[in-house]
Specification:
five-stranded parallel beta sheet; Rossmann fold; 7 helices
Length: 160
């Protein structure tokens, strides 16, 4: 399968946005950050350290699935940075969408926490990282990439 769309997944702080932007730029494809599709109420919850419920996530997942579907129908390739921590979320994103490759950015808790502690411009609080790791269901059908590598090397691995 030659992907026409990539979904870059992982816990907060794993580098999804940076890798996704670099991959999209290299390919000349559109880039989307799933965080931009959260309703304000979800962002407020996360900013206050309140985990989202399944009910909170459903409209967000529906919007992301529609985004992927619309892009593919319009023959536009894209890259989406999205946590998609559970298998059910990934299946929701993939539903009805062919030629989509999931890339899982994998890293240790300590490495990701150290990166998160240097960020000042993100609503996800470092204290919520533990719950993200507890929620994470590592994908069995994704390309797994070690985030300890530089971003340009990660992009090379994805494209190889």
């Amino acid at each position: 399968m030659k992907p026409r769309f990539y979904i870059i997944i992982g816990v907060s702080g794993s580098g999804k946005s940076e890798v996704g932007k670099a991959l999209a730029q290299r390919l000349g494809w559109d880039f989307f950050d799933a965080d931009d599709f959260h309703p304000t109420s979800n962002i407020e919850k996360m900013a206050n350290g309140i985990p989202l419920t399944e009910e909170d996530r459903l409209p967000w997942l529906n919007a992301l699935n529609a985004l992927i579907s619309k892009s593919l129908q319009e023959k536009k390739q894209g890259v989406l940075a999205c946590s998609a921590l559970k298998e059910i979320y990934r299946q929701h994103l993939l539903s009805g969408n062919a030629d989509v490759q999931i890339v899982y950015l994998k890293g240790s808790y300590d490495l990701i926490l150290s990166r998160m502690n240097t960020r000042t411009d993100h609503y996800m609080q470092p204290a919520m990282l533990r719950s993200q790791f507890e929620t994470l269901e590592e994908p069995q059908d994704a390309l797994v990439v070690d985030i300890a590598m530089p971003i340009d090397v990660i992009v090379d691995v994805i494209l190889a």
